[in-house]
Specification:
The complex is a heterotrimer.
Chain A: E1 7-18, E2 21-24, E3 30-33, E4 36-46, E5 51-55, H1 62-69, E6 77-84, H2 95-98, E7 101-105, H3 116-126, H4 132-142, H5 155-168, E8 173-177, H6 185-201, E9 205-210, H7 213-216, E10 222-227, E11 230-236, H8 237-241, E12 244-250, H9 251-258, E13 262-269, E14 272-278, H10 283-291, E15 295-298, H11 300-314, H12 325-331
Parallel strand pairs in A: 5-9, 5-10, 7-8, 8-9
Antiparallel strand pairs in A: 1-4, 1-6, 2-3, 10-11, 12-14, 12-15, 13-14
Chain B: H1 3-55, H2 64-67, H3 69-92, H4 97-132, H5 148-204, H6 207-214, H7 222-246
Helix pairs in contact in B: 1-3, 1-4, 3-4, 3-5, 4-5, 4-7, 5-7, 6-7
Chain C: H1 8-22, H2 34-41, H3 45-57, E1 61-64, E2 68-71, H4 75-101, H5 106-115, H6 122-129
Antiparallel strand pairs in C: 1-2
Helix pairs in contact in C: 1-3, 2-3
The chains are: A alpha/beta, B mainly alpha, C mainly alpha.
Domain ABC transporter (chain A): 9-253
Region (Disordered) (chain A): 310-334
Pfam families (chain A): ABC_tran (PF00005)
């Protein structure tokens, strides 16, 4: 089968609303689920051949957004398009695309009551780019038993199985949706290593949703931050790491430096004040800070995420209350 | 046409083909695995009934006919369980709903073919045993009492079609529940049951057969064929219903 | 590794520069591939690529097609010259400013420097520049 180039995925003003519906619970008893808006005005892109991190709190809509890529459901409004650059199409019921887009969700979508190997041969048959030898290697690495029933595996082993499926399928668009949940730390790092090694060898588009930001952020080339069903930012990861800065020093000097900036957090420790500001500092600012005895720190991606989602959620006193606020804040620095 | 478009087209065709094949193969595997338990039990049950009836001197005709009636419900429950469990993994593995539908129909075909053949063989074997024991074989259920090749064919095709219909019905019922929830789902299921009931009546009570015989004045194997034709129509109706239900079925993050 | 505040690609470039300066990486030595870099330090290969790109531009590294990245001839000299130029502004000036705050006299500093002059071949270079 001819290989495909890495896929781009694009969301164009996508909205997903869930109607009031029934769901089958784990105990087999149906329960009412009230309607809700899961995604609103989602417009963003996962660029071809890059690793993008989809970050956000639990319930921000990450899984719903990623489900659209695999055509697990249709958007209520807007368009979801995937494909090689310049030839993006709707993946809905198009086998050429669905067999090239793999969304691995937590626990893995496996044949529950069958042996693990049944799931493997199923994926092997449906995935044109499946590499059976690589799949074996990964199973050995993660110590997943082939001959056990999928339903009796521990949570960690199920996640390892899901990770294996995701890597061995070599899909031009591969999405790992919180796939590391339940894995212990060594297994998680083994997964990140395997992902990087295989990505370098077989370039493809990878999206990883995560709330373990600290651990995964260095894998990302791009970051999309989702909060309460909206895209808060979508930018190259390197640009974001220095976006939130802390200024620590004498209160007067800190206040002087922080004046006119978007202050996210303020903390007093006696005569010393620590202020967290949103937006980069210029070299001049840095020199002024050093001269005034103010220490500059960077909060990294995790800090940015916490500040952006907290301020949009709780509407702190020193700013607006909508999810769009952080973007507005960024513009105010230009 | 660019090479990229050609590649996509080639991959689409290949992916569709292998997805349908894989779904059918998977259902076939389940049929073999579960059938290996089910059919020996059926044979055993028929034999035990025969022995008991013999003991009380009440052995009168076929005992297989009493036990094979459960086969359609067995097909029905497989139809409920197997495709439902496949929806999520199938879509996640990269298959389309259309391929799932086609594969399930093919799988139902496998179920029908194997059930029909096994049941026809059971009847044939029973007839052989009865002949050896010098007993007169006949049955009280079903529209046809033919033996030999004709009987075998009518049993295989008739029972096969019924199993096929019931398997699809099972699949449609579970898809109906997934799509419409318990209350509306129940209504959908009840209306879905109509073709199956029609198939049943056509095969056993035989109004279609009687109609063909008495009103149209047909004779020979033709009235039985008329009955089978009704079963075919019922199977087709169930098939259509399943297609409509699976066509846009969403995947929910639920554990079944 | 690479936990500093700057973008990671800058930190990587800095690390390689330091290795070239210290002689840990000799001219014409091959450096790790982006893949090795990515998996060793668990970073995005594009980040490593970006660092290499910058170093190629600075003529610290050069690319041999199909083979990988190598330390460019004269890289160490160029880096030394460049760092030497920045040394006074970026390293010494703040230290002297601190000394002034602490009332340390120039003589004390000179005496300290004479006493702690680095040994070996580099002392000649030291003398020339001071």
């Amino acid at each position: 089968m001819n290989p495909l180039p890495p896929f781009t995925a694009r969301f164009d003003d996508v909205e997903v609303t869930f109607p009031r519906s029934w769901e089958m619970g784990e105990n087999g008893v149906a329960r009412r689920v009230s309607g809700s808006v899961a995604l609103e005005n989602i417009t963003c892109e996962f660029p071809a051949g890059q690793i993008t991190g989809l970050l956000g709190r639990n319930g921000a809509g990450k899984s719903t957004m990623l489900s659209l890529l695999a055509a697990f459901r249709r958007p209520t409004r807007g368009a979801v398009l995937v494909g090689p650059d310049g030839d993006l199409r709707d993946p809905w019921e198009d086998a050429a695309l669905t067999s090239a887009v793999l969304v691995v969700q937590e626990g893995g979508d496996v044949l529950q009551d069958e042996k693990v190997e049944a799931t493997f041969s199923y994926y092997a048959d449906l995935r044109p780019d499946w590499d059976p030898e690589y799949a074996r290697e990964l199973l050995d690495l993660f110590e997943v038993p082939l001959r056990k029933k999928a339903s009796v595996l521990s949570r960690g082993k199920r996640s390892a199985l899901a990770a294996t499926l995701g890597l061995a399928a070599r899909a031009p668009l591969t999405v790992f949706d919180e796939v590391y949940l339940g894995m212990d730390a060594p297994t998680r790092f083994a997964f990140y290593d395997a992902l990087l090694a295989d990505y370098a060898e077989h370039p493809r588009t990878i999206v990883m949703s995560s709330h373990l930001v600290e651990e995964t952020e260095r894998l990302f080339e791009n970051v999309v931050l989702l909060d309460r069903g909206r895209v808060v930012l979508a930018e190259p990861a390197d640009d974001l790491r220095t976006r939130v800065t802390s200024l620590t020093g004498p209160t007067a000097a800190v206040d002087h430096l922080a004046a006119g900036r978007d202050v996210l957090h303020r903390q007093h420790l006696g005569p010393t004040t620590r202020v967290t500001v949103h937006g980069p500092l210029s070299d001049d600012d840095a020199r002024a800070a050093a001269a005034a005895g103010v220490t500059i720190g960077h909060e990294g991606l995790e800090g940015l995420l916490i500040h952006l989602t907290r301020s949009s959620r709780e509407g702190t006193g020193d700013g607006g209350t909508t999810a769009g606020r952080p973007l507005a804040g960024k513009e105010s620095h230009r | 046409m660019s090479t990229l478009a050609q590649t996509l087209d080639a991959r689409r065709a290949a992916a569709d083909r292998s997805a349908v094949r894989t779904v059918a193969k998977h259902i076939g595997g389940v049929l073999v695995g579960v059938g290996a338990w089910y059919w020996p039990i059926i044979v055993l049950a028929a034999a035990i009934i025969a022995l008991i009836q013999q003991r009380f001197d009440a052995l009168d005709g076929s005992t297989v006919q009493y036990v094979v009636g459960s086969a359609r419900w067995f097909a029905f429950s497989l139809g409920v369980i197997v495709p439902l469990a496949m929806i999520r993994p199938h879509l996640a593995a990269g298959g389309t709903r259309r391929a799932l539908f086609r594969g399930v129909v093919r799988g139902a075909g496998l179920a029908g073919a194997s059930f029909g053949l096994v049941i026809a063989c059971l009847y044939a074997a029973e007839q052989g045993v009865w002949r050896l024991l010098d007993l007169d074989w006949h049955r009280s259920l079903g529209l046809d009492e033919s033996t030999g090749a004709v009987g075998f064919a009518v049993n295989a095709v008739g029972e096969g079609l019924v199993a096929f219909t019931y398997f699809l019905l099972g699949a449609a019922v579970s898809a109906g529940f997934v799509r419409f929830g318990p209350w509306l789902g129940l209504v959908v299921c009840l209306s879905l049951g109509i073709p199956a009931v029609v198939a049943d009546i056509a095969l056993y009570a035989g109004p279609a057969t009687a109609l063909a015989q008495q009103v149209l004045g047909l004779s020979g194997p033709l009235p039985a064929l008329a009955g089978l034709l009704v079963v075919v129509v019922a199977a087709a109706a169930t098939c259509l219903a399943l297609h409509l239900l699976l066509r846009s079925i969403p995947v929910k993050r639920t554990v079944f | 590794m690479f936990d500093g505040p700057e973008p990671i690609y800058l930190q990587i470039a800095q690390m390689i520069r330091a290795q070239v300066l210290s002689g840990e990486l000799q001219e014409e030595d091959q450096v790790m591939s982006t893949t090795q870099f990515a998996t060793t330090f668990r970073i995005n290969p594009a980040t490593a690529q970006k660092a290499f790109g910058q170093l190629v531009e600075e003529k610290v590294l050069y690319k041999r097609r199909g083979l990988g990245m190598f330390v460019a001839p004269g890289a160490r000299d160029r880096l030394q010259a460049e760092h030497r130029a920045r040394y006074f502004d970026e390293v010494l000036a703040p230290a002297l400013a601190q000394a002034a705050l602490l009332d340390i006299s120039a003589d004390d500093i000179v005496a300290y420097v004479r006493g702690h002059r680095p040994a070996g071949g580099s002392s000649a270079a030291w003398e020339e520049t001071s």
